[in-house]
What we know:
Elements: H1 3-37, H2 41-51, E1 58-61, H3 64-67, H4 72-79, E2 83-85, H5 93-109, E3 117-121, H6 129-136, H7 143-152, H8 157-161, H9 164-167, H10 176-179, H11 214-229, E4 233-238, H12 245-260, E5 264-267, H13 289-305, H14 317-335, H15 341-347, E6 353-360, H16 367-378, E7 382-386, E8 404-410, E9 419-423
Parallel strand pairs: 1-2, 1-3, 3-4, 4-5, 6-7
Antiparallel strand pairs: 6-8, 8-9
Amino acid sequence: MSRNKVWEISKKGKQLLSFLCVIGLFAGGMRYCSRLLVNKTSMKKYEQFFHTDKNFDVLFLGSSHVINGVSPLDLFRDYGIASFNLSQHGNYVRSAYYILEQTLEIIETKNRDMPKVVVLDIYAGGEKVPSLHNAWDGFPLSEIKRDMARNLTGDKQMEMTLPLSLYHSRWNELAAGDFNPAINRWYGVELRYGVSFPGAQIITDPEEKKDIEEEKRLYVDRIKELCTSRGIRLVLIHIPYSYNPEWQREANAFYDYAEENQLCYINYMNEDIGIDFDIDFFDQGHLNPAGMRKMTHELGKLLQGLEVEDRRGGDQAEQWMKEYRDFIQYRISSLKEIKQAAIYLMSINDPDLFSVVQIKRSALENVQIRKLIQRLEEGENQVEIVEEGQELRPLDGKEGEFDIYCTVYEKGNRDSPADSRGFVRQESYAVK
């Protein structure tokens, strides 16, 4: 071969290489920009699932009711159940079908074990596109994601499958959280700190029924078929709330659906599981951490009855418990941000904390304060009721006039308080 011919081939090879480098740099830049600019809600939620090497025997699906209602780390501590909470805000049964399909494909691709049980909350109706972004922007483009966009988003398919087309102008809105997003490390659960009175609409009679919306029934059918095809048991649940009685009545119709399809279904609106609507909710629809633990405990009993394996003696048990200890420290750190007495008293009703609470009798006139104190007394905490005219004497020596004073210790470490807080009697029992 002549020298000119060799040179010509070499030149074309360099040109091709340069072209491929440019394409690679462009693709990499687009990928980086997309990750930087898009809504981070989905990324924060699912990043742990994408990168873990753990197998999960149970997957939870649903909306924010499940996000705030089921704690996988508590499930492991109390029952040894390995689970992940895949639920997302504003994503209901229709989106849950595609999330489950996508999740099972990821599990299969990574050669992880299939779950034994899928637990689906059948609450609510159709999703809105912004809520779908919350769930889906963190998932890479796939045929399943295209199907979801085509069937659920109408004329918004482009922005759903290529989210950079929606977020490309966010340059001037970027903040520290875009460059270093705070990834959820608690297997999908989110704690909402608050105490709220219920709404007026709480349906507890299972005979009050409304027909299941046709499209919802169709998607529950599809979830059932997907689970059956993979040898997974489907369990249906309905987590309590106190608004929209029509959705509550529709939930009662799922008793008939479950019987027809030989599925396990529990509508916890109609079960006495110890949830108090006055003190176990962040708002009218979402459980606070105390309510979440009650709900998680009930689901643990249910799954234990379905013979889901207890893995507390397994290879990954030590890692689970290390993460649970980190979860304790997260809850302790969260106490320092709380400004209202009722929320604080709810938060220290925690299985990993011991509290000494001094409270003036007049403070018990507030029904939420009274119920929260009673619950602390039922545990291993120490409560001292101080009569009017007497002063509270904080254990840490803090001076001031208080109506409520709490000294909180991590169980097993009573040498020094993990936190302490005094409250004065105002409308909200504000922190002092």
